[in-house]
């Protein structure tokens, strides 16, 4: 069993005495066009994503969306989209991608998810790496998110974690053919080398390989 990454100090700079706002005020600020997360009552701005980051996010969102639509599983949401984990975590994060099963859509609000999604995906950048591998790893584990993917384009490295009965994440490697099989998106598998192709394969091509008729 692989050891989970240890929490690291976030690369995000914060004021020594940050202004703290209620969650509702944080949501209102997002409606004005900002992209940020809410951490212990403080609004933490997020850096813009790179073009490569955006391409991988769009590729995964397209493939997953078509797959869950065809299988009636139910919805995939792409950032910017706020996830507010259960109490006592006073946090609201914006994963790059989340999947929510049909039987849990009652958690969905107009502008955010009130609770843990079934899958969270973070595509790292130099600015977000320590936060995604540290703070968010610990938070997502504590929130009970069943599956967490960490995709690192700069290192062409992918990590897949599945929550165990003891409430801890376990690293689950891709199989001998380089294929990772999800535990929460029923029947879904990902050929990891797809993520590193330039250009990325078309969502149509991948969906067909997954057995989805478009």
Describe this structure as you would to a colleague.
Mean pLDDT is 87; it is low at 6-16. 24% of the residues lie in helices and 25% in strands. α2 (51-71) packs across α4. It has 214 residues and is α+β, with helices and mostly antiparallel strands. The strands form 4 sheets. It has a 6-stranded mixed β-sheet with strand order 3-6-8-9-10-11, sandwiched between helices. A 3-stranded antiparallel β-sheet has the order 2-1-5, covered by helices on one side. It has one domain (49-209): tt1808, chain A, CATH 3.90.1570. Keywords: Endonuclease, Hydrolase, Nuclease. GO terms for molecular function: endonuclease activity. This is Restriction endonuclease.
Write the CATH architecture name.
Alpha-Beta Complex
Cα shape: globular
Say what oligomer this is: single chain
CATH class: Alpha Beta
CATH evolutionary superfamily: tt1808, chain A
Poorly predicted runs of 5 or more residues:
6-16
The name of the CATH topology is tt1808, chain A
Secondary-structure content class: alpha+beta
Question: Strand sequence of the main sheet, in spatial order?
Answer: 3-6-8-9-10-11
Provide the gyration radius in Å: 17 Å
Would you spell out the secondary-structure blueprint of this structure?
Elements: H1 23-31, E1 36-39, E2 42-45, H2 51-71, E3 74-78, E4 82-84, E5 91-92, E6 97-101, E7 112-114, E8 119-123, H3 129-143, E9 147-152, E10 157-163, E11 169-171, E12 179-181, E13 189-191, H4 203-209
Parallel strand pairs: 4-7, 8-9
Antiparallel strand pairs: 1-2, 1-5, 3-6, 6-8, 9-10, 10-11, 12-13
Helix pairs in contact: 2-4
């Amino acid at each position: 069993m692989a050891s989970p990454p240890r929490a690291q100090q976030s690369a995000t700079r914060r004021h020594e005495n940050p202004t703290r706002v209620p969650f509702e005020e944080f949501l209102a600020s997002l409606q004005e066009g900002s992209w940020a997360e809410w951490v212990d009552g403080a609004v933490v701005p997020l850096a813009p994503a790179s073009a490569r980051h955006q391409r991988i996010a769009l590729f995964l969102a397209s493939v997953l969306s078509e797959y869950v639509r065809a299988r009636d599983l139910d919805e995939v949401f792409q950032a910017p989209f706020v996830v507010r984990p259960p109490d006592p975590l006073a946090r609201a994060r914006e994963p790059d991608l989340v999947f929510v099963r049909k039987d849990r859509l009652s958690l969905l609000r107009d502008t955010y998810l009130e609770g843990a999604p079934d899958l969270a995906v973070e595509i790292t950048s130099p600015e977000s790496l320590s936060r995604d591998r540290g703070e968010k790893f610990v938070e997502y584990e504590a929130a009970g998110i069943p599956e967490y993917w960490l995709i690192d384009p700069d290192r062409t490295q992918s990590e897949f974690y599945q929550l165990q009965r003891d409430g801890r994440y376990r690293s689950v490697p891709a199989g001998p053919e380089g294929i990772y099989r999800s535990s929460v998106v029923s029947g879904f598998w990902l050929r990891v080398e797809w993520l590193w192709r330039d250009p990325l394969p078309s969502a149509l091509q991948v969906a067909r390989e997954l057995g989805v008729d478009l």
